[in-house]
Amino acid sequence: MLMASAAKDHLALDRAILLWSETNEKPNNRAYAAICDALSAIRRNDTEAVSVAITEISKRKSYAYITGINLVIQATHTSDAAAFAAGMKKMLSSFRRYMFGEEFDGLIDPFAIGIYELAKAYAPSAVEEFDTTRRLPWDAEYHQWLSGVEDVQDLYELPELPNLIEEAMTNTNPMPWAKQIRETW
Length: 185
Description:
Structural class: mainly alpha
Order of helices and strands: HHHHHHHHHH
């Protein structure tokens, strides 16, 4: 969800949310599941569902990075700009350690941009105190470019594809047999 949001790929974001809503009955990690529920609710502007997810989030212990995400979600819901900036700072300062110390993987935090974009759409006042010109792992240059993009789908030149492939790959509609296979796994 956050990667699609970071790319302003609204179609992919909505499809990821749809997939999550159809497959989250038995999550293997309740902390991450609560985050997915909150992000999905934020995208849908469902304040009640965000509150329910925040209650579940508050019951879970997490890595520092995930705690930062949880703080950002709570601050987004309450439109608390100072708390949002503090949560983003916690996310960004603990990102490299969360990515298992990998130099390359920890260089840029795309999840921070994704959650920023979701928060900005849900509660624009919540993001007002966050410094979008800060250094890595926040990607200020990408964020600046992204601010001029409404939906990345508008920038694509799509190839001519057979209908079956176009439905699955371009429109990201699930193939009719895909759900049946998932259910039998």
